[in-house]
Write the structure tokens for this entry.
Amino acid sequence: MSSIVSIENLSKRYDSGFEALKSVNLEIQEGEILALLGPNGAGKTTLISIICGLVNPSSGAVRVGGFDVVKDFREARSLIGLVPQEIALEPFQTVYDALRFTRGLFGKRHDAGLLKSILEKLSLWDKKDAKTMELSGGMKRRVLIAKALCHEPRVLFLDEPTAGVDVELRKEMWEVVRQLKEDGVTIILTTHYIDEAEAIADRVGVIRNGELLLVEKKEALMQRMGQRQMRIELIKPLDAIPEALARYNLDYSAEDRTLTYSYEANGERTGIASLFADLSKAGIVLRDVETRQSSLEDIFVGLVEDKS
Amino acid sequence: MNFQAVKSIYSFEMARFFRTLSQSLISPVLSTSLYFIVFGAAIGSRIEEIDGVSYGAFIVPGLIMLSVLTQSISNASFGIYFPKFLGSIYELHTAPVSYLEIVLGYVGAAATKSALIGLVILATAEFFIDYEILHPLAMLAFLALTCISFSLFGFIIGIWSKNFEQLQMVPLLVITPLVFLGGSFYSISMLPPFWQTVTMFNPVVYLISGFRWAFFGTSDINIGLSLAMIAVFMVICLGIIGWTFKTGYKIKT
């Protein structure tokens, strides 16, 4: 696979002095789905805004399909589609006119067949004559995607496509993204949900404080991120962890009378069933059990520690 | 040059004009008709001729200019401000369009709209007042130049405005007084000498005077000077727009 977007030492410092990006390097392969994962304010939106032409870089360079996004902006932008985070549509315009407008902006002639196929793919064809303000939130998002696709880009950027979207609609978005990938479009999306990255991405890049901490194949990352913890609250305090339970590497906190067991969520065997069996054999009575996924924050901390 | 993009912006803006036809056309036509009835027919009949032109006819060019200037500014400023307000301006930044194409599209549409309004008002005036146009081509040229230069000015206001209030303020607080004091309803020579000098600093005086010359062949100010002043105004606006886009001021971070 060859890289379609290449980012070299990209930095952005705003006038306020805030450093949104610190010397980011990234190669995006043609045809892949890359998820940029990070908390709010990490620099995800700044990164894609620079690539798409919304923000000027302070230093460094971005090439899309071999074209510099600043010097050869016409060629570079022709290859790019952007679906913004906020819904921004002209309320009185019809869906069809909105698409025609965008296609025209990209210097392309009207193509009724293409617009029809895009609208059908996004289940918007029966809404083509509706004004955008009459549409539901989910449909508006799909209109934004349709607009981003109507000049036939090779790279599509989706900025937080499922922020503030209900579960059903998220699944629907993911389906759309998968379908686009099948059509050969390279997709870069930003998200702060781990499960979203897990559900659709081929590779995941983790951004924090303007730094790209790592870019890895999803499977590898999920392995590292997939730690779960089970907190087991006991009725009676323990003096020590019984010998029979030693193989589980339990942590005991006398203060709140809890045992903590860490396990791989993605592992074939979690060991939970045998742990419970051994606990009851040892005569330990449970009061409550709680499991939790290591949070994004925990993982970031872990990644930063790994690096140093 | 991405002509398709210019066409796209232009026709999109014109579509809005026709979508809101009542707002964009009927209200200026109605208000100027009222001016004609009051100043032209009712009061005008009691006012003497100015430079051999009946008062009703004398105010026609000024009234057209009044509408054309306010319309140029409000159309152009709204056209570029609204996408900024909605956030849909991202499309202009991410599309392969240059600033020149954006300006051509938006300013071209705004100028077309106000020229259309000007011509409709001119036609409306026919119902109330008898007048002749001595230099029709010059009249059209003056109209076009004014529409373009003030649409450029409106475009600047649209880009610089932070909210709807600011957007309305300039047309309301600056343009309306300048037009009223710019000789729409009187000849500059009717003013006391001191105020005649003050008036010379009002750019609208040159527009109205030149426009009136195209109608009646007489004017307060030399026609060449009028043209030069419009040209200067246009160059200043272009310069400001060029600088705004080049530096990204109020547009990009």
